Amino acid sequence: MFLDYVKIFIKAGNGGDGAVSFHREKFVPNGGPDGGDGGNGGDVIFVATKNVNTLAKFKFQKHFFAKDGEKGGAKNCTGKSAPNLEIFVPVGTVVRDAGTGKVICDLVEDGERVTVLKGGKGGKGNNHFKTSKRQAPTFAQLGEKTQKYQVILELKTIADVGLVGYPNVGKSTLLSVLTEAKPKIANYHFTTLTPNLGVVKMFDEDFVIADIPGLIEGASEGAGLGHYFLRHIERVRLIVHIVDISGSEGRDPYEDYLKINDELKKYSERLASLPQIVCASKSDLLEDGAAIEKLESKIGQKVYPISSITRNGLDALLKTMYEQLKVLFKVGRLHTDTVSLEKEEDMSFYIEKVKDRLYSVRGGLVEYCIRNVTLSSYESFAHFQKLLKDKGVIDELKRQGMKEGDTVEIGDIEFEWVE
Ligand SMILES: Nc1nc2c(ncn2[C@@H]2O[C@H](COP(=O)(O)OP(=O)(O)OP(=O)(O)O)[C@@H](O)[C@H]2O)c(=O)[nH]1
Ligand SMILES: [Mg+2]
User: Fold this and answer.
1) Rounded mean pLDDT of 356-361?
2) pLDDT higher than threshold 90 for residue 414
3) pLDDT, tens digit (0-9, with 9 covering 90-100), for 183-198
4) DSSP category for residue 308
5) Does domain 1-155 match CATH 2.70.210.12?
6) Ligand 1: does its nearest atom lie under 6 Å from the Cβ of 374?
7) How much distance in Å is there from the Cα of 193 to the middle of ligand 1?
8) Spatial CA neighbour of 154 closest among 219, 98, 74, 214
9) Are residues 153 and 87 in contact, defined by beta-carbon separation less than 8 angstroms?
10) Ligand 1 atom 8: residue of nearest CA
11) By alpha-carbon position, which residue is closest to atom 14 of ligand 1?
12) pTM exceeds 0.90 for this model
């Protein structure tokens, strides 16, 4: 099964919670806090590999969640960090944010790795919260929680030359005579349903030819097989545009040529602006060269007559492909303006005076405070107040007129302000 477009869910592992624990030993009173830190959650990493050439394995598995870090333990034992989750994709895969469609990474080299999600950090154990005033902290930090994201994987095959043309003009036959590839060939439209690749070896060069399903007028509006498989020639450097010069199906070669170019343009300007070699197939069915000359004069460009049956013209075609490729740069990454899925921690806040003597703190900082403090005890509450002070919240509340005894709410927490 060939699959070149899927949506999957990914999530990095949560950080493990820090532990609350106290050292206990016979004859050693008040041994002090010894709660260890939580382990880090696993990252999500995409790895490009040339060992697979389709996204088929994602048809049934849609969820890729890295494991969570373990909780911290007593005796300063740090919880185990979770292993990273590696997701193997074919070389040429583009990863996008399903929400915005923006590109996160474009993996073009075998073995290339991109960490797309970082695992949550483990929480600090209570041993970190010991101060001269607070000898026995009864709270610890929670592990960082991570979010689930949906991403699109889109395979854009790596090839140097793309064969385009109407169905049945002989694209697959040409690939089969120029390379070792064995694509399906038959005398009907849309024989080819998925891209075929073949390698040409010439002198010191190897180059890859991609044969894709035939295009017809209106492909960009969904006619025929649509134009979606054009993604497989987005990375090519050179297009070989094949027209059936024999007019064996009653169409005019020049009209075909214009319509295909029009469809390429509707898919992408870049694709339409690539250099093209125009190739007249089935020339063995011609009686003379008049049709070739007519096409040449209409398009104002050299036309290469070929026959995959008699092998006429194949050497000249190969030679011009080779020469043109020599001076055309390889297309590597199509997308360089990539975005990151994860946002920086939002530490902003604002204060709203709900009514007289009641203030509410809102914004990203609130989330942060809740995650970082377990309000289980007086001590952790003191820690919480210190956090508010450090982040400038208390100063801002005072500036807005907060006085002793006023109420402040932050998320679910409500407290009375005492100096
Ligand atoms: N006479 C002649 N027939 C050819 C030549 N090349 C291909 N054919 C025939 O044309 C028919 C279509 O060939 P394919 O290679 O399957 O055409 P295609 O362009 O790949 O078609 P789709 O995959 O449907 O888009 C087959 O019956 C081939 O034998 C040629 O040079 N001369
Ligand atoms: Mg074909």
Assistant:
1) 90
2) no
3) 999 889 999 898 999 9
4) T
5) yes
6) no
7) 14
8) 98
9) no
10) 170
11) 170
12) no
